[in-house]
């Protein structure tokens, strides 16, 4: 763990204890556990590809959490299920306690293998995104086989999703070009339905492809964008315990 000191600070009108780091990185609020004493949550400094507010989160980044502990920058992983599953890494001020927890963490994770997977879904969905399986279908709680498609590295996972988006864009353009030839609204809708069904016959039954294609089209069946883009469908790469 990099050098830090504990100091009291005024934050939002309240005085609290914080870990202040010598390198000037963001301070961390000191919290207390009834069993193990004072600790602070460690930011994820291994997530180099994320630029959003979630950059320092360990949610969906279990390998980063374990690697943080292995490098001596954390002691244990805490999992909460408030509004979805969230992983955090704790570092305890009492280093005797911290080292004991860290030793248990290292032992528990020593033989674990990790992989990367894809999650996708509607950005407005309260349930969040779902993992994709080998058929590029969204895995649901009703599926007997919930094992996702695994990728050996993050780049392969991202490239796979980019390929799906490019493929959807190609189909969306084909649809709009065919629809433009028709003037009657009902004929446009029929052409769209027939062509989309023909396209989807080439894919598994519950493929994500239909969602991607439809997300690229306006209500009048014209293209929303001038390049491959999504509006309502979101996706991200996550780390998984490799169950293969």
What does this structure look like?
The structure is a single chain. The protein is of the alpha+beta class and 244 residues long. The protein contains five helices and ten strands, in the order βββββαββαββαααβ. The strands form three sheets. Strands 4-5-7-6 form a four-stranded antiparallel β-sheet. It has a three-stranded antiparallel β-sheet with strand order 1-2-3, with no helix packed on it. Helix 3 (154-179) runs antiparallel to helix 4 and helix 3 packs across helix 5. The model has no long low-confidence stretch (mean pLDDT 91).
- Calculate the terminal CA-CA distance, rounded to whole Å: 33 Å
Strand content: 15-25%
Work out the radius of gyration: 23 Å
Biggest sheet strand line-up: 4-5-7-6
Oligomeric composition of the shown chains: single chain
Order of helices and strands: EEEEEHEEHEEHHHE
Can you count the beta strands? Answer: 10
Strand pairing plus helix content: what structural class? Answer: alpha+beta
- Average of the residue pLDDT scores: 91
Number of continuous helical runs: 5
Question: Biggest β-sheet, characterized?
Answer: 4 strands, antiparallel
Q: Can you give the helix content as a percent range?
A: 25-40%
Low-confidence stretches: none
Overall geometry:
elongated
Observed structural traits:
single chain; 244 residues; alpha+beta; four-stranded antiparallel β-sheet; elongated
Quick take:
By secondary structure, the chain is an alpha+beta fold. The protein has five helices and ten strands, in the order E-E-E-E-E-H-E-E-H-E-E-H-H-H-E. Strands 4-5-7-6 form a four-stranded antiparallel beta sheet. Strands 1-2-3 form a three-stranded antiparallel beta sheet, with no helix packed on it. Strands 9-8-10 form a three-stranded antiparallel beta sheet.
